Amino acid sequence: METIKIKTPNTTYPINALLLKRWSALSFSEKQIEETDLLCIFEAASWAASSMNEQPWEYHYAYRGTPSFEKMWNCLLEGNKSWSKNASVLILSLARKNLHRNNLPNRHALYDTGAANTNLMLQAAAQDIYGHQMGGFDMDKTKSEFSISDDYEIACFICLGYLDTPEKLEDKFRVREIIPRKRKNLQEFVKKW
Ligand SMILES: Cc1cc2nc3c(=O)[nH]c(=O)nc-3n(C[C@H](O)[C@H](O)[C@H](O)COP(=O)(O)O)c2cc1C
């Protein structure tokens, strides 16, 4: 499947095609992502801008069918479990809290990691790979299961895979999969001084 047409929004002003293409998918096919394709996606993440070029992001990933995937998937909250089990890859996105140069707090760490994650999601879409970022996970469980040190903040989980039909989803998720994406009007968040 290439995409679901209704997910391509009608924007008020014209924007780049890749931004139109990306959306948070729920239905994933069995097809696994080739590791070389996955590395292109991480490469794109690495080209995000970051404060002082600190690059505070770190990624850990596992393929479906491995014990690590199972362990990661078990850290997700129930609402994310049923559909994400079919994803090809689960990724844990971390932000290093302190600066490498002097170990002082980097107040931009999560901001920069979010920017890298946006690059990651857009590069995936460019490769016809869809993803879903997830903040719905058990923080304490994830920290202890993966021995995440206090040097890191967990930004989110991300799943990636190729699209499948909405029909294979449970009712409530199928509905989400086929409704249009919505955004605020620009007037609500863009203010001219
Ligand atoms: C940091 C972050 C956390 C999110 N957490 C979840 C989540 O736990 N479960 C979920 O279904 N979607 C989650 N989403 C996806 C958002 O709901 C989605 O991006 C939003 O509804 C806009 O839809 P779109 O990405 O298709 O444009 C998350 C997105 C982000 C950026």
Provide keyphrases for this structure.
NADH Oxidase, alpha+beta, 4 strands, globular, 8 helices
Q: Your description of this structure?
A:
The chain has one domain (24-179): NADH Oxidase (3-Layer(aba) Sandwich), CATH 3.40.109.10. It contains eight helices and four strands. It has helices at 17-21, 35-46, 67-73, 78-84, 109-126, 139-145, 171-177, 186-189, and strands spanning 57-63, 89-96, 130-134, 152-161. Helix 2 crosses helix 5 (109-126). The termini are far apart. The mean pLDDT is 97. The structure holds flavin mononucleotide. Residues 23-24, 80, 132-136, 156, 181 line the site of flavin mononucleotide.
Strand elements, count: 4
Average of the residue pLDDT scores: 97
Order of helices and strands: HHEHHEHEHEHH
For the record, the count of structural domains works out to: 1
How is the topology of this model organized?
Elements: H1 17-21, H2 35-46, E1 57-63, H3 67-73, H4 78-84, E2 89-96, H5 109-126, E3 130-134, H6 139-145, E4 152-161, H7 171-177, H8 186-189
Antiparallel strand pairs: 1-2, 2-4, 3-4
The structure holds flavin mononucleotide.
Short description:
The protein is of the alpha+beta class and 193 residues long. It has one domain (24-179): 3-Layer(aba) Sandwich (NADH Oxidase). The protein is built from 8 helices and 4 strands, in the order H-H-E-H-H-E-H-E-H-E-H-H.
